[in-house]
Amino acid sequence: MAAEDHVQTLTPGGRAVLDAASRLFYERGIAAVGVDAVAAEAGVTKKTIYDRFRSKSALVRMYLAERDERYRRWIDAWIAEHPEADPALAVFDALESWRGSQGAKGCAFVHAHAELLAEPDHPAHEVIRAQKLWLHERFRVLVEEAGHARAKELATELLALHEGATVLYSLTETGDAVAAARRAAQALLRTG
């Protein structure tokens, strides 16, 4: 069963665990949060965590898989709700909105990747990589549909701007990082 399928079939206790773990992992970091802290925050026993998720590694993977799915839906919904905007630029607008309501600490995937570098076999790496590949492909499709000839190259450039904005904001609290990246993306799309 895929992590995404498992999320849909969680018991109330499992849901409480995943919600608590998601908040704690994002706010404090994966390494800093133990299973005891997750259990206490969720109001369950450690046994419940292991019964539902088998391991902390599986819980981390599930946290990232669910966040990835939410971000994908967020971007697609933003594009659909703002048909007047250039869809590739709408991704940056969606990022700004997400950052304001869901991700003030920056990219959960970049943070997780940094924390898990010493564990190359950690199951979360698959989710992290898939999230970045999906976003690259999403940009590629959007710029291709807009008629740009260099769709793959533009997608890479747009993804670099998107990722740079999330990292810059989280490391330096540069409040206009996403807006600056959007302006650069707009210039790229005009010349590309």
Biggest sheet: strands, sense, closure? none
Give the helix proportion (percent range): over 70%
Question: Which class of secondary structure composition applies to the elements?
Answer: mainly alpha
In DSSP terms, counting alpha (H) and pi (I) runs of 4 or more, how many helices?
10
Tally of extended strands?
A: 0
The rough form would be described as elongated
For the termini, the CA-CA separation is 42 Å
Integer-rounded radius of gyration: 18 Å
Mean pLDDT: 91
- The share of residues in extended strands comes to under 5%
The string of secondary-structure elements, in order, is HHHHHHHHHH
Could you list the spans in which at least 5 consecutive residues all have pLDDT below 50?
1-6
Task: Please give a handful of descriptors for the protein shown.
192 residues, 10 helices
Overview of this protein structure:
The protein is mainly alpha-helical and 192 residues long. It is built from ten helices and no strands. The chain has helices spanning 3-8, 12-28, 35-42, 46-53, 56-81, 87-101, 108-115, 124-145, 151-172, 177-191. The longest helix has 26 residues, at 56-81. The protein is elongated. The termini are far apart.
